Amino acid sequence: MYDNILDTKNRFRIKHCPCGKSNKDVKFIPFINFNDKGYCFSCDKSFYPENELTNKPLVSISRRYKGRKQETPKSTISNDLLLNSLTNYSENNFIVFLLNNFGLDETNKAIRKYLIGTSDHWKGSTIFWQKDKTGSIRSGKVMLYNSTNCKRVKEPKDHINWVHILQKIKVFNLKQCLFGEHLLKENDHSIIGLVESEKSAVIASIKLPEYTWLATGGKQNFKHDLVGCLKNRDVVLFPDLDAHKQWSEKAIELSKIANFQVSEFVIRHSENGTESGVDLADIILKNTKPIKLD
Predict the structure, then answer these.
(1) Average pLDDT over residues 149-176
(2) Which residues contact 290 (CB under 8 A, 6 or more apart)?
(3) In what order do the strands lie in the sheet with 212-215?
(4) Which of 103, 140, 172, 283 has its CA 20 to 30 A from that of 13?
C-alpha cells in the first residue's frame, strides 16, 4: 500500500483539481493510484482518502512540501518554427502595409530586427515572436491586420492566437517576455522606448530610430515579470492614451527596476486628448512631417 506518495511524474494526467480549478498549470499533484486525492499547490489544500481523514491532518502535505515548492519552468518554442515563418511576406498584411508606407529597405530592416513572421492560420496573418535576452523563444503571437489601415481585424471575432496553441503542444507553460527583448543584448546603452503593441514598436523603430523600441504586448503587461529585464536602464514609456494613468502609477511602483519616465507625447498629439485606443503608431502614421519626441 502506498502511504500517500505524490505521483509527481504523472501529474499531467489530472484535468481538474478536486477544488474545481483547472489543472492546466499542473499545480495539483495526485497521490499514486488516485485521481482525486493529492495536494494542490494553487489552493494549498490536501485531499486524502476518506478512511485517512481522521488520523492525518490536512496540513501535513503542505508542511512536508512547503520548502520544496518550485516555480514551473518556462516553456520554449523550437527555433526552426521561427525560421520557417520568415517567408511569404506578400501574404502578410502587416508587412504589405509597411512596404506601402515605408518602402522595401526600411521594411526589410524591421523584419530582420524583430524577426517578424508569417502565419497561414488566417490569410494575411503575422507572427510577432517573443525572443528573450538569452535567445530563448517563449512563443509567437499570431495577429491579423488590415493591410490598408493597419488596424487589427476584430470582426467577426478578435484575431489573436499563439503559436504553441496552433502547434497543439499539450503541456506548455507560457511565460511572456517583452516583444523585442532580444535587442537589449546588442543595445546596452541606448534609451528604451516601451509601448503596448508590437505594431507600435515596429513602426516607431522605423520613424524614431534613436530609441530601442520594445512592447509589452498589452496594457496589463506592464508588470514586474516582463520589465525585470530592463534593470537599471533608462526607459521612456509611451502608453496608449487610455492607459496613461495606469502606466504612470505602475511606473512609480516599479521604479526600483529602472529609470521609468512617462511621456505625454501621445496625449499632446491626439486630437482632443481623450480618444480611447489611440497609440504612438496612430500619431506617427498621421504625421507626414518628421517627428521629434518632445
Answers:
(1) 94
(2) none
(3) 212-215, 192-195, 234-238, 259-262
(4) 140
